[in-house]
């Protein structure tokens, strides 16, 4: 059975109505005080939505409950006391369990016990030595397996493994349609492997009439040639003025996450990955992440036209909007003056391209901790 990490164990005790109201009032007060930082704003907004939706049935992980307890400076909830139904019991003092001194009776030493005592002592000493030894061996075996898999993945992804001649022989094409199906065979009767968005670069393997065999993050499949081009499509698009947003409608959380007014959850911007500012892997990632956050905020504040387009998240069907999909966030693209903010951040070295499949995403690139 796979052991669940302690940080993912749910806080199973239900919240009382009084405790729920207290937490909600403290969250509102903290959010309205203007003293919360970016992480606290994001975290407390998520907690407020969860308590609003589930009330006393809200379940939190240990890490979430600890963060909420620390951020709001909550006092520990006193356990409810169950009144006694028998009045006679209340009048009669109950002696404390174990109040009487107890003295263990020593077993008499017999000839058999005297003979087997050395063997029992040896077996006890073996257990005390072997159990920690087995745990240590298992730990180093797991660490070694993780290190080997990481090294093999890094080696397979390294560009040095590909010769210059092989790289020059690869032909790339770009998806020109907004959402185009990649199919398992060269006809519309074949199964759909997934959907590729406009601007996705794919490897072009061979032509078969009106169909082209391609390789993408969905695997090897086929796509109609009329939706492919050897030229990368422009990242600029016209923004209808009647669908635009104001800068005050967009709150920047980090370089690739925003909060759109009127939406019930935060939005993860797709097509790129910006450095983390909360729990970064290294100091360099935190510094670049702060720059990417500040740059995105500047783009939004200085834009004359802002548009947001929501897209489906790359999660299992039925999980979008829950903690099992993208930490409960929705997905979409943000455009300023007709240009995708992701392309701007990538061009300025503040983000890297990041493409997901239909129901899952690859590991996040660690481009800033090298």
Topology readout:
Elements: H1 17-33, H2 38-54, H3 62-72, H4 87-91, H5 111-157, H6 164-169, E1 171-175, E2 179-183, E3 192-197, E4 201-208, E5 211-216, E6 219-224, E7 228-229, E8 250-254, E9 257-260, E10 267-269, E11 271-273, H7 283-302, E12 306-311, E13 330-336, E14 339-340, H8 341-347, E15 352-354
Parallel strand pairs: 10-13
Antiparallel strand pairs: 1-4, 1-7, 2-3, 4-5, 5-6, 8-9, 9-10, 11-15, 12-13, 13-14
Helix pairs in contact: 1-2
Explain this structure.
- The chain is of the alpha+beta class.
- Among the domains are: 6-72, no CATH class; 170-229, Roll (SH3 type barrels); 241-354, OB fold (Dihydrolipoamide Acetyltransferase, E2P).
- It is built from 8 helices and 15 strands.
- It has helices spanning 17-33, 38-54, 62-72, 87-91, 111-157, 164-169, 283-302, 341-347, and strands at 171-175, 179-183, 192-197, 201-208, 211-216, 219-224, 228-229, 250-254, 257-260, 267-269, 271-273, 306-311, 330-336, 339-340, 352-354.
- Helix 1 runs antiparallel to helix 2.
- The radius of gyration is 30 Å and the shape is extended.
- The chain starts with 16 loop residues before the first helix and ends in a 16-residue tail after the last strand.
What's the count of strands?
Answer: 15
Q: What is the approximate shape?
A: extended
Low-pLDDT stretches: 82-88, 154-168, 235-242
Mean pLDDT across the residues is 78
Task: Estimate the helix proportion, in percent.
Answer: 25-40%
Q: What's the CATH topology label of the domain at 241-354?
A: OB fold (Dihydrolipoamide Acetyltransferase, E2P)
Look at the helices and sheets and give the structural class: alpha+beta
What percentage of the residues does DSSP assign to strands (E)? 15-25%
What is the helix tally?
8
Termini separation comes to 36 Å
**Could you tell me the radius of gyration in angstroms?**
30 Å
